[in-house]
Amino acid sequence: MLIGLALVFAALMAGVFAWLNDGFLFISPDRFHTFLVLFAITASFMVIALLAVFLSPLMRQRVEVTEQGLSARQGGQKGTVRWEEARLFAMYNTWGAQKSGSSITYELSSATEIARWTCVQRPNRFHMSMVPTVPLDEYHWQMQALNGVIVARTGLPLYDLRAEPAPRWQGNLIPDPSRRNA
Fold it and tell me: What would the pLDDT profile of 95-104 be if each residue is shown by its tens digit?
């Protein structure tokens, strides 16, 4: 999706430059030819930049368990929750993967912090940064072991929020009165 947005942005930039082109030091006096050349150059740079960012080791998630608590980092987000401060341990569908079920998001929350990480159920070619670095069976075993450690250290159950139906709302955040229990 981001690559698609980058291509649309590249087309808009190339179109503006081609439209405003008066022929001075450009490749061709023909505006369409100029548009095609600028689009190809801009799109190439944008796609390469996006791939470099998303395939970067910095985008890989890292979950670290210590005696004090759990830290999770992915991209620019980092959260640390101390064992004694944990209030909720939950799992839910990863945004954008609800229908495919290719990944599940876990989170351990305290009153002020959230440590969030994603478990890949099956690799997806569209989420290249979400490919496990170990064989899938071992990866799933590690995720189950991590869940067991969290339950043991916090005493909290793992809440599965995937099956919860979304509340029906009518208008501007006003509950639907016809669904009220008497």
Answer: 765 555 678 8
